[in-house]
Design brief:
The complex is a heterotrimer of chains A (346), B (311) and C (307). Chain B has 311 residues and is α/β, with parallel strands linked by helices. Chain B contains 11 helices and 12 strands. The longest helix of chain B is centred in the middle third of the chain and has 18 residues. The radius of gyration of chain B is 21 Å and the shape is globular. Chain C has 307 residues and is mainly alpha-helical. Classes of the chains: A alpha/beta (346), B alpha/beta (311), C mainly alpha (307). The interface between A and B is large, with 45 and 43 residues.
Chain lengths: 346, 311, 307
């Protein structure tokens, strides 16, 4: 659990736009997030909610047709959202902030031995060359649980299975002991047994190398496994932030309710699974009011008119919903959420 | 169990890829039946052969040994044209990746009615349009989507278009090949509900292929666990979850993430090591250890399982 | 203000249709292709140049003083430099060069267009079958190897012997018979790539006949490559015809072509450069045009470039 400290990364009111087919897509609409040292933060949301885009902006890895059009991202005393040159980003990327992508099949260079690929990362970011870099690479391979690392460092990516490849990718990302490791759905493409092992691995590495980890995922099971704090994203905005217990046992945003509700583990055989109907809004168009309102079965009229501000549920828990306004009618959290723990215990 | 009609029967199925030295046995000695009206799930990791079995039933992959029967008639290997047409009409498939399973350069109208057009199963143009409209509505999409291209839709909607495409043929049996694996966790429930609704309204039978056990428990009647081309355990859904016997099944179950932080963080992960099976002298068999609960193991292991069950 | 906002704190009806509605992007593939293509000014310019050239060739023949069919050799006029009377001068046999150049251009372009079209059709059909039907892979690959590995000169010499020289139709058919190889190979590679994608498996599951799978599912993805190949084959044919004319295996003396003009000019161009310059400029323009056009259109028809 992260104690109260200064955030090491602080994003405030970030706005990101893309130009696509001649039109403008507002992918991130005023997102704010604080990241504290040593914690594991999970960002949860559907595809298209903007979670990848948001974190890519911390590394300056937005696509060519995208740009940060507003807000600030403060890291290490600098506003990195204003960085324009590759030189500025090189000081951060890989060295201080590192990323593990989703698909291990395409994240590695198929033509280079994997030992070499790890060495490259070490040489480039820390300036260590030759024999010492090679030793560090092999040490990293054994840290990520690859058996017989000496021999395997001389092999090519196609000789590894999916889970092994993801371990190699994590080794490359963590080789330079970055401050922040961003994992973008690292286990989505993997089987459930391998997923469990990879999550364990990242947890171990985090302790060992003293890293702060951001997980991007849409799987609440993964969140429950790894996270200290959770941020829920919808339609380009962060709508709720809190500790993992607060989000699972005391959520307040209707989207978070809908997410928790739609878990198959809550399903009763023979009945319908509770679900989120409809589709996320098209961000080419202006969004009026609360973006989730059209899909919310218990929407308030004001949800369609005005965007809600953040309300405090506790010191560590905020939610962006009109339900928390004192003028709102009494809303109870769905019973299914309250009984979540009882069901699991069975 | 009362006499239920067997819709699909797999007898000693074996499927190999490649020839000579590069021969790869994907599926070996698979035996099971699927009864009419049930949802039969096949669960395993990638590469275990579950997709291969599904594709063999719909005649996309050829079978190298053994037979597949549909309503008592053989549908594997060389069959007559009429039988082939029967299979096309009665056994349909839903694919895994909504991004790859639709033709990007064709309108939704054509995609959904492709099967009808192939065999001219409509009276005239208006009839076809009506069938398409009905199919789209049935899966919860608006009829106006028929004139659009797939890239305009989200993953969940595209998957529903794929379901409409399969259902417009009015099949009796549907192979759902990991239909929700590529979808967001929040959209999976939509598709699952849809599949259940359609099962009830049309009296369908499903072969549901998946690698995620948490989902499978909710929708299945019976579950078979497959590992490296062999089925290792088969039982009714609740039975499998309450009394898993095979170590592979136990490992699979322990790996499923529980969406409850306190329980999940205390969970112990079991790892399956295939080398614990010694099949050199004591050959394994497929045995019904409890009524309706089958397991694959040699004499020694079966003894162990029996003792576990009694405990 | 407060009271107006207050009264909005009530529940509203839920509409499932509104939840499902998505934005319509009104994207049309061919429109995007055109837009993309028109952005490349150099290609559009060359297109105009080429079309202008073709149209001009008709005009040129009409306004020319001499009709090609009625040319007579006149050794007095041999190597007559370009002037008011003979706009392009005369060739070594004293015939007006102006009408020869323009007539040859028409012949060459006609040949190239016919050969290009034939290669296209034959190449696509064979390529599709080669890539899609598993059991045809082996036999067609062998056929490809046989045709590809023997130098074309040998085949052409044989054909010239059999048909006693190469007339226009025979030349056309022969060039098509060898030109389909490259197109077929390119098409086959793409068909291989798309053959086992899930949407094609779905079509097979639904019983779609192979012809429709190839036309509706696979062909739209081949357009980019086909256009490029086609555009590059046109200057390729012209240059091949030129080479063959050098070797005496081209179209007969009676059928004028740029190749023959260039061959003739080879002997005299040091003293009389105009004999070479005029046909060479025409060949160069055609080649550049199709090269640029082909690349531009091919890039434009690749959906990944439609942003």
């Amino acid at each position: 659990m992260a104690e109260n400290r200064q955030p090491i990364l602080s994003a405030k009111d970030v706005e990101i736009e893309f130009t696509l087919r001649g039109k403008v897509l507002k992918a991130i609409r005023k997102c704010s997030l604080d990241l504290y040292k040593g914690e594991t933060l999970a960002i949860v949301g559907e595809s298209g909610s903007g979670k990848s885009v948001f974190t890519k902006s911390f590394l300056g890895m937005l696509d060519a047709n995208g740009s940060i059009t507003g807000g600030t991202i403060t890291y290490d005393g600098n506003d990195i959202s204003k960085y324009k040159t590759e030189k500025q980003w090189m000081a951060i990327r890989g060295k201080k902030i590192s990323m593990v992508m989703q698909d291990p099949m395409t994240s590695l260079n198929p033509l280079k031995k994997i030992g070499k690929q790890i060495e490259e990362s070490i040489t480039y970011n820390q300036g260590i060359k030759g024999e010492e870099a090679r030793k560090m690479a092999i040490e990293m391979l054994s840290k990520v649980g690859i058996p017989d690392p000496e021999r395997r460092a001389k092999q090519y990516p196609h000789e590894f299975s999916g889970g092994m490849r993801q371990r190699v990718v994590i080794a490359i990302a963590a080789a330079c002991r970055p401050d922040i490791l961003i994992c973008d759905e690292p286990t989505t493409a993997l089987d459930v047994t391998i997923q469990a092992q990879i999550l364990d691995l990242i947890r171990g590495l985090q302790k060992d190398l003293d890293m702060t980890v951001i997980y991007i995922t849409h799987d609440l099971g993964v969140v429950a496994n790894v996270a200290d704090r959770v941020a829920v994203m919808y339609a380009g905005q962060i709508v709720e932030v809190g500790t993992v217990e607060e989000i699972f046992y005391d959520a307040w945003h209707p989207y978070t309710w809908a997410l928790l509700n739609s878990l198959p583990q809550l399903g009763v055989k023979g009945e319908e699974l509770p679900t989120i109907e409809g589709t996320p809004p098209n961000l080419f168009n202006e969004v009026h009011g609360d973006a989730f309102a059209p899909r919310n079965k218990q929407a308030l009229a004001i949800d369609f008119e005005e965007e809600p501000p953040f309300f405090n549920v506790s010191e560590t828990h905020i939610a962006k919903t009109w339900y928390l306004d004192p003028r709102a009618p009494k809303i109870e959290q769905p019973k299914s959420i309250l009984s979540l723990r009882n069901k699991m215990k069975k | 169990m009362a006499e239920r009609e067997k819709l699909i029967e797999l007898k000693d199925l074996q499927i190999t890829f490649g020839t000579g030295r590069k021969k790869f046995v994907a599926v070996d000695h698979v035996n099971f039946d699927i009864y009419k009206g049930e949802t039969f799930s096949l669960v395993g990791e990638s590469g275990s052969g579950k997709t291969t079995i599904g594709r063999a039933i719909t005649r996309i992959n050829p079978v190298s040994a053994g037979e597949i029967y549909f309503k008592g008639q053989r549908i594997s290997g060389k069959i007559s044209k009429e039988m082939d047409l029967e299979v096309i009409k009665k056994c349909q498939m839903i694919f895994q990746d909504p991004m790859a399973s639709l033709n990007e350069r064709a309108k939704v109208d054509y995609i959904v009615s492709e099967g009808l057009i192939n065999h001219h199963l409509y009276k005239d143009e208006d009839d076809r349009k009506r069938k398409v409209e009905y199919a789209l509505r049935e899966v919860g999409l608006l009829p106006e989507f028929a004139s659009r291209f797939p890239h305009e839709f989200s993953g969940g909607q595209r998957q529903r278009i794929g379901i409409a495409r399969a259902l417009i043929m009015e099949p009796e049996f549907v192979v759902a090949d990991e239909p929700i694996s590529a979808l967001d966790v929040s959209i999976r429930a939509q598709v699952l509900n849809l599949l259940n609704k359609l099962k009830k309204s049309r009296g369908l039978t499903y072969l549901f292929i998946a690698h995620d056990l948490s989902v499978v428990r909710f929708i299945s009647d019976r579950i078979a666990v497959i590992s490296k081309g062999r089925i290792v355990e088969l039982a009714e859904a609740e039975e499998l979850f309450l009394h898993p016997l095979h170590p592979y099944t136990k490992a699979l179950l322990s790996a499923v993430p529980i969406p409850d932080p306190q329980l999940e963080k205390q969970k112990k992960l079991l790892v399956y090591d295939p080398s614990i099976h010694d099949y050199s002298t004591d050959k394994p068999v497929w045995e019904e250890i409890l009524p309706g609960h089958f397991i694959y193991g040699n004499k020694k292991e079966l003894e162990q399982y029996r003792r576990e069950v009694q405990a | 203000m407060a009271s107006k906002q207050d009264e909005l704190f009530r529940f509203v009806e839920y509409s499932p249709e509104n939840a499902e509605r998505i934005g319509y992007s009104n994207y049309s593939y061919w429109r995007s292709v055109m837009q993309n293509f028109l952005k490349r000014k150099s290609a559009v310019f060359m297109l105009f140049v080429f079309v202008g050239l073709v149209i001009f060739s008709f005009i040129a023949l009409a306004i020319g003083k001499y009709d090609w069919a009625t040319l007579v050799t006149n050794t007095d006029l041999a190597f007559h430099k370009p002037d008011g009377e003979y706009w392009f001068g005369c060739d070594n046999l004293g015939r007006d060069y102006w009408c020869q150049v323009w007539y040859s251009m028409q012949t060459s372009v006609k040949l190239a267009a016919l050969v290009g079209g034939g290669e296209c059709v034959l190449g696509i059909v064979i390529g599709c079958l080669w890539g899609y039907v598993r059991w045809l892979d082996r036999p067609i690959t062998e056929l490809y190897n046989i045709i590809n590995n023997v130098p074309m000169i040998i085949y052409l010499t044989l054909i010239a012997l059999i048909f006693r020289g190469l007339s226009f139709p025979v030349m056309c058919i022969t060039l098509i018979a060898f030109g389909w190889l490259v197109m077929a190979r390119n098409v086959r590679n793409l068909v291989f790539m798309y053959r086992d994608r899930e949407y094609n498996l779905a079509s097979r599951c639904l019983g779609t006949p192979i012809s429709r799978v190839l036309v509706k599912n696979i062909f739209p993805y081949l357009i980019s490559v086909i256009v490029l190949r086609l555009a590059l084959s046109i200057p390729g044919t012209i240059s091949l015809e030129t080479t063959l004319s050098y070797l005496g295996l081209g179209l007969g003396i009676d059928t004028p072509s740029l190749g023959i003009l260039l061959r003739n000019a080879r002997n005299y161009f040091v003293d009389y450069p105009y004999l070479l310059v005029f046909p060479a400029v025409v060949v160069a323009l055609i080649t550049i045009t199709f090269y640029l056009l082909g690349n531009a259109f091919s890039d434009a028809s690749d959906p990944r470039n439609h942003v």
